[in-house]
Design a protein that fits this description.
The chain is mainly α and about 25 residues long. It is built from one helix and no strands.
Length: about 25
């Protein structure tokens, strides 16, 4: 369960980072 949450958090952070990068451009 903890490993799944870690993976989901990692994906969410990656999506957020992409959204921020797109907003800067």
């Amino acid at each position: 369960m903890q490993r799944i949450n870690f993976y989901r958090n990692k994906v969410a952070i990656n999506v957020l980072a992409k959204d921020i990068a797109n907003a800067r451009e």
